[in-house]
Amino acid sequence: MPHTQYTQLDDALWPLMNKFYRRHQSSMKAVRDAQLWVGKRDEIVAGLCLRPMAEGLWLTGLLVDPACRGQGVAAALMAHALATVTQPVWLLCHPDLREFYQGNGFSAGPQLPYALAERLLRYSRSKPMIAMGRG
Question: This protein's superkingdom (predicted)?
Fold first, then answer.
């Protein structure tokens, strides 16, 4: 298995994250106010965003190149991104991902900040979604 380097993407390089998302036909978008974390081999093979929200962070945009799935890349990327985070972290995901996130320290049914609770309600109108949190 190739070596993967996990690092926070420099602010000036945020367009590379959107290029990664587009290359994999994802509707996800990196935003400038987020911490952007990537897993790199020769190029970006995984990414996630940590967006400031209320008194915590919203983990969004976790995507791993399909050729690299099943190799622990997502878990390792989250571990690096969250290693020094002391405030709460929330995410919204499909119920099928509950076990994956529970195995990485998240619990279902957290108390959400108002803005994120509104997003969950809006997203749930078109697809099944659950909220998870840690911290």
Answer: Bacteria
* CA–CA separation, 102 and 100 (whole Å): 6
Domain that holds residue 12: 5-134
CB 2 within 8 A of CB 10: no
Number of neighbours of residue 121 by Cβ within 10 angstroms: 10
**Residue 94 structure tokens:** 């499909």
Per-residue pLDDT averaged across 95-101, rounded? Answer: 97
CATH number at residue 82: 3.40.630.30
Q: Whole-structure pTM over 0.85, yes or no?
A: yes
Torsion 86-87-88-89 (CA) sign: negative
Instruction: State how many domains the chain has.
Output: 1
- Using left for φ > 0, alpha for ψ between -120 and 50, and beta otherwise, residue 82 falls in alpha
Distance CA 81, CA 127 (A): 27
pLDDT in tens, 66-87: 999 999 999 999 999 999 999 9
C-beta of residue 113 within 8 angstroms of C-beta of residue 54 = yes
1 pLDDT tier (thresholds 50, 70, 90): low
